[in-house]
TrEMBL record:
A probable RNA chaperone. Forms a complex with KhpB which binds to cellular RNA and controls its expression. Plays a role in peptidoglycan (PG) homeostasis and cell length regulation. It comes from Neobacillus thermocopriae. This is RNA-binding protein KhpA. It holds the Pfam family KH_KhpA-B. Coiled coil: none annotated.
Length: 76
């Protein structure tokens, strides 16, 4: 899943080397925290959050086979 997120996000940003995905796993959920360069945060979120929503949709669909709930947080 980490590779999927990186594959989606890296072509969108100006600083692909700054893309970092951290994983935090609990008993009932998995949280992926996406960090990008401060200058790229707007590109990842998109107008009215449309790009972020699309990324989340793909990640949630890919993780639907897992028994745990999946969350994607986007930050700097």
């Amino acid at each position: 899943m980490k590779e999927l997120i990186e594959t989606i996000v890296k072509p969108l940003v100006d600083f692909p080397d700054d893309v970092l995905v951290q994983i935090k796993e609990d008993d009932s959920k998995i949280t992926y925290h996406l960090s990008v360069n401060k200058a790229d945060i707007g590109k990842v979120i998109g107008k009215q959050g449309r790009v972020a929503k699309a990324i989340r949709t793909v990640v949630y669909a890919a993780g639907s086979s897992q028994q745990k709930k999946i969350f994607l947080e986007i930050g700097e």
